[in-house]
């Protein structure tokens, strides 16, 4: 049965004028109309290969004054929503191409999804990575079943080598692009959220360089209910999507940060399909600070036991930062799309987030180097219920009077109010107490 609606007309208008790209070597048909039936068919096709992840009511709801439901896509096998688009893409390849194999050149969530699902489908898969790629990411791709080749010092070197291998050996070179097949697979998230949460008012997605998830899911949600607000969130450091929407064509933000903390959020560019769909169907795109993303990661870890990366946390960051006051009292779903953060980065992020959230603070003060003075300081900290994380004493390079000691102390507090109470108590007893600003 063909379903025709105003939203399908929007999709047709958005894509009908886009020419076929000839610069891509990966997929033959990229720019046909994305229909609701395509997304429904993709959902049926990939149902046995990806998780139908839960969309659960969050304990954070009361804190932010709305009913928040978290779509936990980080629970996919490779920790990313990209599996949906990749599996639909791979199963749509001709049999002869599946026998020859595929090749990708990146260390992103996309490459891990390709490695896993190509191996599951018995498709030969090769991943080309720069030599400076983290050993953990190389190990993960190999464990997922890919043949990993380290080549070049930059992503561009790896891509050129991958293209050369694809030409010489008949492999299909895959890039993360906005083909109808790939977007339809990503759009299945919108179908699941709509089914799992009745009476939705809004759904929040990560945006940025690769906005395929936002565009594909918006196509599904707007077809099912045009009144559901679809919102994209990107980083203030590189608002690529907002700049591209304003310009009317994909742009490349020169300030894009390649730090692994940001992952795919800082991708340099996406295709015209995604941009056109976003412009037609997405209600709002907002930008958040890095600090808001870190605190969002901390909230999810504490309240939901959810370990996500920047791309996974950026949707909730818009609520943490108060960027969407119109959603107060509404029913809101937030897509946590990725949970692939290296352990050393996770440790740094949580430590920094605790400081930003006024939960860890540092101060220094000068006391007499006499028996009992240090114990008096510790008594004050104990009375104020501050947990001492680290304490150091400096005697040699103290610039104050003789026979004194500078104490540098790092403590953990409950929240901003508790920190202020501790600060007042210390200043009352030690007026020269100096606090280290964040």
From TrEMBL:
<keyword id="KW-0663">Pyridoxal phosphate</keyword>
<dbReference type="GO" id="GO:0006565">
    <property type="term" value="P:L-serine catabolic process"/>
</dbReference>
<dbReference type="InterPro" id="IPR001926">
    <property type="entry name" value="TrpB-like_PALP"/>
</dbReference>
<dbReference type="InterPro" id="IPR050147">
    <property type="entry name" value="Ser/Thr_Dehydratase"/>
</dbReference>
<protein>
    <recommendedName>
        <fullName>L-serine deaminase</fullName>
    </recommendedName>
</protein>
<dbReference type="InterPro" id="IPR036052">
    <property type="entry name" value="TrpB-like_PALP_sf"/>
</dbReference>
<dbReference type="InterPro" id="IPR002912">
    <property type="entry name" value="ACT_dom"/>
</dbReference>
<dbReference type="GO" id="GO:0009097">
    <property type="term" value="P:isoleucine biosynthetic process"/>
</dbReference>
<dbReference type="GO" id="GO:0006567">
    <property type="term" value="P:L-threonine catabolic process"/>
</dbReference>
<feature type="domain" description="ACT">
    <location>
        <begin position="362"/>
        <end position="438"/>
    </location>
</feature>
<dbReference type="GO" id="GO:0004794">
    <property type="term" value="F:threonine deaminase activity"/>
</dbReference>
<dbReference type="GO" id="GO:0003941">
    <property type="term" value="F:L-serine ammonia-lyase activity"/>
</dbReference>
<dbReference type="InterPro" id="IPR044561">
    <property type="entry name" value="ACT_ThrD-II-like"/>
</dbReference>
<dbReference type="Pfam" id="PF00291">
    <property type="entry name" value="PALP"/>
</dbReference>
<keyword id="KW-0456">Lyase</keyword>
């Amino acid at each position: 049965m063909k379903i025709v609606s105003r939203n399908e007309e929007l999709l047709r208008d958005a894509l009908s004028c886009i020419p076929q790209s000839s610069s891509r070597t990966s997929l033959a048909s990229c720019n046909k109309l994305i229909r609701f039936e395509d997304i429904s068919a993709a959902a049926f096709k990939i149902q046995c290969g990806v998780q139908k992840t839960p969309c659960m009511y969050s304990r954070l709801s009361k804190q932010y004054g709305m009913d928040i439901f978290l779509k936990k896509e980080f629970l996919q096998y490779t920790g990313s929503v990209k599996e949906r688009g990749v599996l639909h893409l791979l199963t749509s390849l001709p049999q002869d191409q599946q026998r020859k194999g595929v090749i990708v050149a990146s260390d992103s969530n996309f490459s891990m999804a390709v490695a896993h699902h190509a191996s599951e489908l018995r498709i030969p898969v090769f991943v080309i990575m720069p030599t400076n790629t983290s050993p953990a990411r190389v190990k993960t791709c190999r464990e997922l079943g890919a043949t990993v080749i380290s080549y070049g010092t930059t992503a561009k070197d790896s891509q050129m080598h991958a293209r050369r291998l694809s030409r010489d050996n008949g492999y299909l070179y895959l890039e993360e692009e906005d083909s109808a097949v790939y977007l339809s697979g990503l759009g299945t998230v919108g179908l699941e959220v709509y089914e799992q949460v009745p009476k939705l008012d809004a759904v929040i997605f990560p945006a940025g360089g690769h906005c395929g998830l936002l565009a594909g899911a918006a196509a599904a949600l707007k077809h099912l209910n045009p009144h559901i607000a679809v919102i994209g969130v990107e980083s203030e450091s590189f608002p690529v999507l907002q700049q591209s929407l304003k310009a009317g064509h994909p742009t490349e933000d020169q300030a894009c940060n390649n730090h692994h903390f940001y992952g795919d959020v800082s991708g340099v560019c996406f295709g015209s399909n995604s941009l056109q769909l976003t412009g037609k169907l997405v209600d709002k795109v907002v930008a958040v600070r890095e600090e808001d993303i870190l605190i969002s990661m901390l909230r999810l870890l504490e309240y939901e036991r959810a370990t996500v990366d920047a791309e996974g946390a950026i949707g909730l960051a818009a609520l943490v930062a108060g960027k969407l006051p119109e959603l107060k009292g509404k029913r809101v779903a937030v897509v946590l799309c990725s949970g692939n953060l290296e352990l050393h980065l996770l440790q740094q992020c949580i430590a920094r987030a605790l400081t930003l959230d006024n939960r860890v603070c540092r101060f220094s003060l000068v006391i007499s180097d006499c028996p009992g003075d240090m114990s008096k300081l510790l008594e004050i900290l104990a009375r104020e219920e501050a947990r001492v994380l680290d304490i150091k004493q400096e005697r040699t390079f103290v610039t104050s009077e003789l026979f004194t000691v500078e104490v540098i102390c790092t403590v953990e507090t409950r929240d901003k109010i508790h920190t202020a109470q501790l600060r007042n108590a210390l200043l009352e007893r030690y007026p020269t107490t100096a606090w280290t600003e964040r």
